[in-house]
């Protein structure tokens, strides 16, 4: 799978990048082609789509639904506001910039993620 992804990335790069690939209709054509191939596979039974061509009969399962509780939602919003108020927002902004830079440079982003997690107050984790 990784090999196929890298091949596709090279193909897009060779076209002049993602913007060119979208402008020429390549991306849309590929999405449509893959959707068609997937559906064809489902129809032939080569690909499994649960509830469509597999596990369509038999005992129906009940899904347990949970009530929406306004009080719980309000508590979560309150906690989020506390985190945002108590964190060092300058550090957060810098970490987001660092993360973007690392991602654009195709560097390892994990150290930046770890630094971001360390900013989260312990009482939240």
Structure report:
The chain has 125 residues and is mainly alpha-helical. The chain has helices at residues 2-15, 18-23, 26-44, 70-86, 89-104, 110-119. Helix 5 (89-104) packs antiparallel against helix 6 (110-119). The longest helix has 19 residues, at 26-44. The protein starts with a helix and ends in a 6-residue tail after the last helix. The model has no long low-confidence stretch (mean pLDDT 88).
Summed up, what is this model?
This protein has 125 residues and is mostly helical. The protein contains six helices and no strands.
Mind describing the biggest β-sheet? none
Strand percentage lies at: under 5%
Helix- and strand-based class? mainly alpha
**Oligomeric form of this entry?**
single chain
**Helix-residue proportion:** 55-70%
Question: What is the count of DSSP helices, taking H or I runs of 4+ residues?
Answer: 6
Distance between the termini: 35 Å
Which spans of ≥5 residues are poorly predicted at pLDDT below 50? Answer: none
Integer average pLDDT = 88
Q: What is the tally of beta strands?
A: 0
What's the helix-strand series?
HHHHHH
User: Over the alpha carbons, how many angstroms does the gyration radius reach?
Assistant: 23 Å
Shape: flat
């Amino acid at each position: 799978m990784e090999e196929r992804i890298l091949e596709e990335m090279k193909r897009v790069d060779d076209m002049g990048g993602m913007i060119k690939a979208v402008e020429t209709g390549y991306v849309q054509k590929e999405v449509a082609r893959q959707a068609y191939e997937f559906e064809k596979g489902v129809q032939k039974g080569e690909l499994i789509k649960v509830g469509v061509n597999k596990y369509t009969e038999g005992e129906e399962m009940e899904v347990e639904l949970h009530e929406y509780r306004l009080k719980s939602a309000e508590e979560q919003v309150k906690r989020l506001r506390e985190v945002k108020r108590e964190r060092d927002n300058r550090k957060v902004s810098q970490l987001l910039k660092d993360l973007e830079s690392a991602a654009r440079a195709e560097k390892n982003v994990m150290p930046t993620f770890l630094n971001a997690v360390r900013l989260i107050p312990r009482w939240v984790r």
